[in-house]
Amino acid sequence: MTTDAPASSTTTDSVLGGRLTLRQQRAGHRVGHDALLLAAFAPADRRRMVDLGAGVGSCGLAFLTRVPEATGVLVEIAPELADLARDNAALNDLSARVEVAAGDVTRLGRPSGPDVPQAGAADLVLTNPPFNDMAQHRISPDEARARAHMADGALLDEWVRAADRCLAARGVLCLIHRPQALAAILAALDGRFGAVEILPVYPRADRPAVRLLVRAVKGRRTSPALLPGLVLTDADGTPTAAADAVLRQGKGLAQA
C-alpha cells in the first residue's frame, strides 16, 4: 500500500503485511524483496545488529520488527537516505532501539573511522551490497540508483572486510547477492568466515535462481552448505506459501 501527496518527492509504503511502514524516495532506488528476504534470513538469536548500506532502513528495521529484543545501527553513506532511515525508525516506534550513522562502509571499524558502530561490538551484520558490475551494465543516470546497484570488482571484498571488523567472535554475516557472484562471495569470505550457508531464491520453480542469500560465521572453518531454495511464485504468479510467510507475515527464513 502506498500513500503520498501528488507533489511529494517521497512515498509512504507498507510492507510485511502492514507490519512495517517506510518513507522512501519516489525516484531512484526503491525497497524491494531483497531487503525483506535478507532480514528474514538473519538468525533471531542475535541482539546487536549492524545494517551496512541501509538505504532508508528497510532491512534493519524489518529485522528489528521481527526480533523485539534486538538493537541496531543503520549505516548509510547518502545523507538524504540516512535522514529517511531516521524518519522510518520513528515512524515505526523503533527510535529507542536503533541508531543511524551516515558514513562510508569501508571506513567502519578502523582507528581513523567513525565511532559508530564500534569495532567488534555487533553479533550480526546485514548487507545488501551494490552488486552490478559497472563493466557489464549501463550505469543509471540517477545517482542514488547507481550507487545502490553498481560496484567494481573489489567492493564486495571491502564490505566483507568491514563486516568482519564490526563483528565480535562468532558473529554472523548475512548478505544477498546475484548468483553470478558466488565465486567472489566465497573468495571474500575465505579466511574470515566459515560455516557458510547458501539459500537460492527462485522466481518460479522452473526458473534459475535470481538471488543468493548467504549466511556465515566469523572465525569458523566449517565447509559451506547449500540449503533448500525459496520459490517466490507458483506457475500462475501466485506467491507461494513460503514466500507469503516471509514477505507478508514477517516470518523468519530457514533458521538453523
What does it look like?
The chain is built from seven helices and 14 strands. Strands 4, 5, 6, 7, 10, 11, 12, 13 and 14 form a nine-stranded mixed sheet that branches. The longest helix has 13 residues, at 79-91. Strand 2 and strand 3 form a beta hairpin. The radius of gyration is 17 Å and the shape is globular. It is of the alpha/beta class. 25% of the residues lie in helices and 29% in strands. The chain has helices spanning 33-41, 58-66, 79-91, 143-149, 155-166, 182-189, 241-247, and strands at residues 2-3, 10-15, 20-25, 48-52, 71-76, 98-102, 122-127, 132-133, 150-151, 167-177, 193-202, 211-218, 225-226, 230-231. The model is unreliable at 133-151 (pLDDT under 50). Helix 1 (33-41) packs across helix 2 (58-66) and helix 5 packs parallel to helix 6.
Low-confidence stretches: 133-151
The end-to-end span amounts to 32 Å
Radius of gyration: 17 Å
Shape: globular
| Strand portion | 25-35%
Element string (H = helix, E = strand): EEEHEHEHEEEHEHEHEEEEH
Number of strands: 14
How much helicity do the residues have?
25-40%
Q: Number of helical segments? A: 7
Largest β sheet strand count, sense and barrel closure: 9 strands, mixed
Q: Given the helix and strand composition, which structural class is it? A: alpha/beta
Mean pLDDT: 89
